[in-house]
Amino acid sequence: MQGKQPGQVEETYALLDNGSDVSLCDEKLVDELGISGVQRRFSLTTQEKRDSPRSGYEVKLIINSIDNESSLEVRKVWTVERLTISELSIIRDRDIDRWSHRKGIKLPETENKEVRVLIGCNVPEVFCSSKKNLVAKASQWAFDHHWAGR
Question: How far apart are alpha carbons 92 and 102 in whole angstroms?
Answer without folding.
Answer: 12
